[in-house]
Amino acid sequence: MIYLLKNFKSNLIPLNFKIRNQLKATIYFFTFVFILLGCSKKEIASSKISNDLIHETSPYLLQHAYNPVNWKAWNPETLALAKKENKLLIISVGYSACHWCHVMEEESFENDSIAKIMNANFISIKVDREERPDVDKVYMNAVQLMTGSGGWPLNCIALPDGRPIFGGTYFTKEQWSKILISISKLYKEAPEKAIAFAENLTKGIQESQLITLNKTVPNFEVNDITTAMNSWKTQIDTIYGGFKGAPKFPMPNSLEFMLRYNHQFNDIAVGNYLNNTLTKIAYGGIYDQIGGGFSRYTVDENWHIPHFEKMLYDNAQLVSLYSKAYATNKKGLYKEVVFETLNFVKEELTAKNGAFYSSLDADSKNKEGVKEEGAFYEWTEEELAAALGSDFVLFKKYYNINEYGLWEQNKYVLIRSQSKSVFAKEQQITVSDLNSKVSKWKKILKKLRSKRSKPNLDDKVLTSWNALMLQGYIDAYKAFGNEEFLSAALVNANFLIGNQFKKDDSLYRNFKNGKSTINGYAEDYATVIQAFISLYEVTLDEKWLISSKKLVAHLYLNFLDKKNGMFHFTSKEDENLIARKYEVIDGVIPSSNSLIANNLFKLGHYYANKNYLKTAEQMLNNLKVAVQENPGNYSNWLHLMTNFTKPFYEVVVAGNTALEVNKSLIKKYYPNILIAGTIRENNSLPLLAYKFNEDKTFIYVCVNGTCKMPETTLEKALLNIKK
């Protein structure tokens, strides 16, 4: 029979990541014959002797350092050993906050009988997908080709040279044992079958998502965007918000484009949908109602029961989204979400040096001392009543300690269902009194919760995720003008400059225990450039643009594929994997290529660089059909398409009071502008040439460097900006 792995109890990849329908390669499956083995119920305690992972810095790898499996890290020495001993590779990929990674470790990788099979027949490699997204992308692609879906833990079995022959996500101990025995037997008795399958699968990996140069003259029209949006609307959930079905991921970049679409295309339906979505997410269990911050996704469609890990990249992007949404409608709920989430980031995910840690685990110990998913966040009615006293009756209604808020086994995850104004009116109290009570409840329960066993912290620092959080702080500063937000942004930006930049202006990927060891990927460059451009726009300090330009030069030199104008995910200086991938699909995090293209569009305007603009235009043109046919997977490309089709402006503020004027400018939501400014005469930016005046501060609104007459008031200048 053909063994088709389903995405069983794994940490899921959202639908936007699934590429099954886009893959054109023909994949040949062959029959795995599984030997049914009886498994002893008696478990033998894991040895406390460490394996090679003890020398790593990744918290995820260190979690496996005392498994009886002879785990090794992904490196040239390990791959050479597999070839030398002619052993199949087990490539097991996960991350520190991954619940089902922990489950498979406990069931299989800590089991001596399973370890014995693995150690005798395989070279076993553990990979932290957050440190090595390049490895993860290749083998996730393989699993998606074989099964149509994917997730973590990701487990691939490959030939000694790394070409995969089998893959899946979570397996029970019994399943994993049968797979190990049957595949090792196959490789020993009929290696030609395994090699033939690996050849076909590797060809499919290499050919999937191939991007060819679109030689037609670029032509983007407003109708391209409206047609794509009309198609996309069929996927939205108009009741609960987000996108149809479960599990449910917030997909912040998709929602951010809809925010822009509503603004520039005056689509009331999209605006209503977006506000409903942001409100339902903020009311939901996916948002930590007590401590702030967001979990990665929910297992249900109404945002109630999350998969409880809290990832830096989700919180970073949702801070940006809610800040921009607040700038459009000044909704108090959005401000509350931003401030509480940034307080969570400050308390739980920020290092003393201003760097941001990666995540908090989904699991923690319950009252019995047993690790359990969500144990830190769940409540029983009895403990809530005891903690809140006479206020519990009102609290119970506000946070739905009822059938609506019930999770399982008399456990509740707090969820709201009404606005404060509606709830206060029904309960015949003032909104002010309700706010005071809610604030008091949160303090009481936060203090009570702090006595519980806390989820583990993944304290590695990743360049791209830090840049996303840096962007979040910048967007919050723009919306609210809080100087603490700008200060946090500057501290983090200087951390990146001081630690993640190499002498040749290339980047490191990671930072842990004072060391940076892995070369940066396109994702790292793209996010840092984006954040530094934004930091320039709020500080008017040109050093951030200069750093961005240096990073772009490195991208052109080491990542660009001159055949199609796209950028590889890995540098040409990195080790060769079985495939060198492009990242173009916008998922939970926008793709590196879409970020690079948007960055080049802006830098092209800042520096009057036609090559940057031409590259961005060509990249979009290469994907024009895909963007139109599947807009949900290309939301960040739609930003660029809108820039090329709708009016786009350079707003220049020049004069002694430019910084003060700019503070007012950045509070407004204008997705179709970039900002340049100066408080002095000498500037290298073409946009600033001959615009400084010592006596007055002028505001110029320009298109492609051609400016209208300057104004001395911001209000008059902004009248020149059209949607």
Which helices and strands, and how do they pair?
Layout: E1 11-12, H1 59-63, E2 72-73, H2 76-85, E3 88-94, H3 99-109, H4 112-121, E4 122-128, H5 133-147, E5 151-152, E6 154-158, E7 164-168, H6 173-189, H7 191-207, H8 222-232, H9 252-265, H10 268-283, E8 297-298, E9 306-307, E10 310-311, H11 312-329, H12 332-348, E11 359-360, E12 363-365, E13 371-373, H13 381-388, H14 392-398, E14 406-408, E15 411-412, H15 420-427, H16 431-449, E16 457-458, E17 461-462, H17 463-480, H18 483-500, E18 510-511, H19 522-539, H20 543-558, E19 560-561, E20 566-567, H21 592-606, H22 610-622, H23 624-629, H24 635-645, E21 649-654, H25 658-666, E22 673-678, E23 698-703, E24 706-707, H26 714-718
Helix pairs in contact: 4-6, 5-7, 6-7, 9-10, 9-11, 9-24, 11-12, 11-17, 17-18, 17-19, 19-20, 19-21, 21-22, 21-24
Can you characterise this structure?
This protein has 723 residues and is α+β, with helices and mostly antiparallel strands. The protein is built from 26 helices and 24 strands. A five-stranded mixed beta sheet has the order 2-4-3-6-7, sandwiched between helices. A four-stranded mixed beta sheet has the order 22-21-23-24. β6 and β7 (164-168) form a beta hairpin. α4 packs parallel to α6 (173-189), α5 packs across α7 and α11 (312-329) packs parallel to α17 (463-480). The radius of gyration is 26 Å and the shape is globular. The model is unreliable at 1-10 and 15-47 (pLDDT under 50).
